[in-house]
Design a protein that fits this description.
By secondary structure, the chain is an alpha/beta fold. It has 20 helices and 19 strands. The chain folds into two domains: 244 residues, D-Maltodextrin-Binding Protein, domain 2 (3-Layer(aba) Sandwich); 204 residues, D-Maltodextrin-Binding Protein, domain 2, CATH 3.40.190. 31% of the residues lie in helices and 12% in strands. The strands form six sheets. It has a six-stranded mixed sheet. Strands 14-15-13-16 form a four-stranded mixed sheet. Strands 4-5-6 form a three-stranded antiparallel sheet.
Length: 607
């Protein structure tokens, strides 16, 4: 049956062939922009800016509630469920993680990753948050007004010029020079050693004065509670660059990729746009993005060589860079200190193995009340490195052209993990999880969970003072200690008529100061630019164990799949693991079924 949103058909982002069909069918037809129907504030429109998503194992379907319509003010929460009613557990989307149709879960948009579970039946308008003095200084350093720069002893830059179709030289952001290039394994050291700045760095250089007015369309998919911070950044950018007006559109994550597919078909993509690492490959291959090489080469102050090499590989195609990756990291073990204290067992540490995790899960499970363990990222990009590689197994072969799930190590790995629920009963059943109606760890019902840094606001807001939690290293498996690293990026579309102005925005947004203002100083992510990670460990609400998220980068491996058919592969895997965790198939049967379906898709990666 066709899922609907507010009575209108909903198209889930799926296989590459499905995306191609949508593009082909839409050629020549202008795409309707939902933002056109939403009031603007500072030329900013907000369009269905939340997504209901869960980070754990599958559940049965329940009837869904409609999406509340809203105007310029972002909606922080709305009544439970997804917008769709389906005959199977997940909605079929390939979000991160896939959307669960039957209960409220994590609200998130991938620009800012996770937000929080929504209270049932309530809708709130997000107010502009108070900005700390430190963040205000950082924002002012990146895009602050000329008066502030004068007060700080800086020289007010001249007004920018119009952006030509092809730049002769990319605008150069100034500021403190970043550190030397660092691989992902060096990020931990850089983050720990970098001192958070206390004064505003030098202003970034701008184009010459006398330019014509330029409007830039910038596409985001932020969670609602992060949107005021984006508005603040854009406001200061426009104060600093008076000839550039930012029209930023915030679209709910599930709808974002459907929307930009339609825009790609009608050649109306925004100038600057958010993109996810698992999806960027297809967009680069189909020619939707403008190469950034001429900009990063001309803009010596941007220091592209500082970025994590593994992240840059994901946003490059045939030797050219098409997007700037901004965050890079992944899950570690988080645990509920209160539950551990009550069970009189020691907190997890570097000595832990997966056997330690199982023992602690058994000791902290109280049937029907709380559970020792809960799953995250089943069927998605982090699954291979979190669940399989500790056992020396893989989900895909080295070049992602075939499944590796039918190998004995892969079957052994998933048997161990599925036994936590099906045999040892230390994880919530689908019915038990449905009754909780949110992420059980966030409300103190689960002792251990795999979670990334961007879950911090979720845990702190919905756990409040009652949730005493911390972070530990990933437990070591029989073969190795691993986790998955992945991130997101921003690209400049081929449709941009003002690429120089687009680079001015992109280079400042993803500068060291921009990254600190939007991400690391808020404790919601680790950056691909190690010099921007200095204030992460001192960010508000981050437990002492936050250092393990930083250190974990040294053993995290790139999440997969990332090849063009990734969306469809994830959709298939998610559906079949639903059946496994519902007890409808064995691990061997599940892996054989998945392999039969995804091998033809993976084989296309050879082409």
């Amino acid at each position: 049956m066709t899922p609907t949103i507010g009575g209108e058909p909903r198209i889930a982002v799926g296989s590459i062939s499905r995306e191609s069909n949508i593009l082909a069918a839409a050629r020549g037809s202008p795409a309707e922009d939902p933002a056109a129907h939403v009031p603007a504030d500072l030329a900013v429109a907000n369009v269905r800016d939340i997504e209901v998503a869960d980070q754990f194992a599958p559940f049965p379907t329940i009837e869904a509630d409609p999406v509340p319509e809203h105007g310029a003010a972002p909606v922080e929460g709305w009544s439970p469920g997804s917008r769709a009613t389906r005959a199977h557990t997940w909605c079929g989307d390939t979000s991160d993680p896939p959307v669960d149709c039957r209960s409220p879960g994590l609200l998130h948009g991938r620009s800012g990753r996770r937000a929080e579970p929504s209270p049932r039946g309530k809708e709130k308008v997000v107010k502009h948050h108070q900005v700390s003095r430190r963040l205000f200084v950082i924002a002012s350093a990146v895009v602050g007004g000329q008066a502030l720069m004068a007060a700080c002893g800086g020289t007010a830059p001249p007004a920018p010029t119009a952006a030509p179709a092809k730049p002769t030289e990319a605008p150069k952001p100034a500021g403190a020079a970043p550190t030397a290039a660092a691989a992902p394994t060096q990020a931990a050291t850089a983050a720990a050693a970098t001192a958070a700045p206390t004064t505003a760095p030098a202003a970034q250089a701008k184009p010459a004065a006398g330019g014509a007015k330029v409007e830039l369309n910038v596409a985001h998919t932020w969670p609602a509670e992060r949107w005021p911070e984006q508005v603040e950044f854009d406001k200061k950018f426009m104060e600093k660059n008076p000839n550039i007006t930012i029209k930023a559109t915030n679209t709910e994550f599930n709808e974002y990729f459907r929307k930009i597919l339609a825009q790609a078909a009608s050649n109306t993509l925004p100038d600057v746009m958010y993109m996810q690492d698992t999806r960027v490959s297809q967009w680069m291959r189909q020619g939707s993005f403008r190469s950034l090489d001429q900009y990063v080469k001309a803009d010596k102050d941007f220091k592209i060589e500082e970025f994590a090499p593994e992240a840059l590989k994901l946003t490059s195609y045939k030797g050219q860079l098409y997007a700037i990756p901004y965050d890079w990291g992944g899950p570690c073990l988080v645990y509920n200190k209160t539950i551990f204290d009550e069970a009189k067992i020691k907190y997890p540490d570097e000595s832990w193995t997966l056997d330690s995790l199982l023992d602690a899960a058994k000791a902290t499970t109280l049937p029907g009340k709380q559970w020792g363990w809960d799953y995250a990222y089943i069927g998605n990009w982090a699954m291979e490195s979190m669940y399989f590689r500790p056992f020396g197994a893989d989900v895909f072969n080295a070049d992602e052209t075939a499944s590796a799930l039918t190998t004995e190590p892969a079957i052994q790995a998933m048997t161990w993990w599925s036994d936590l629920l099906l045999k040892h009963k230390v994880a919530p059943t689908p019915a038990e999880k449905q009754a909780v109606q949110t992420v059980p760890f966030a409300v103190g019902r689960v002792a251990m969970y795999y979670a990334p840094p961007w879950n911090t606001p979720t845990f702190n807001k919905f756990g409040g003072d009652k949730l005493k939690w911390d972070i530990a290293p990933m437990p070591k498996g029989p073969k190795e200690r691993t986790s998955a690293a992945m991130g997101s990026n921003f690209a400049m579309s081929k449709d941009s008529k003002t690429p120089d102005a687009a680079w001015t925005y992109l280079s400042q947004y993803l500068s060291k100061d921009g990254m600190e203002f939007m991400w690391t100083c808020r404790g919601v992510g680790l950056m691909t630019r190690p010099s921007a990670n200095g204030c992460f460990l001192s960010s508000p609400g981050l437990p002492p164990g936050g250092k393990y998220w930083v250190d974990g980068i040294s053993y995290m491996k790139m999440g997969r799949p990332v090849q063009p058919a990734a969306d469809e592969v994830i959709r298939i895997m998610t559906r079949e693991y639903d059946n496994l965790f519902l007890g409808k198939a064995t691990v061997k049967e599940t892996h054989e079924t998945i392999t039969k379906q995804i091998d033809p898709l993976l084989a296309k990666n050879k082409e």
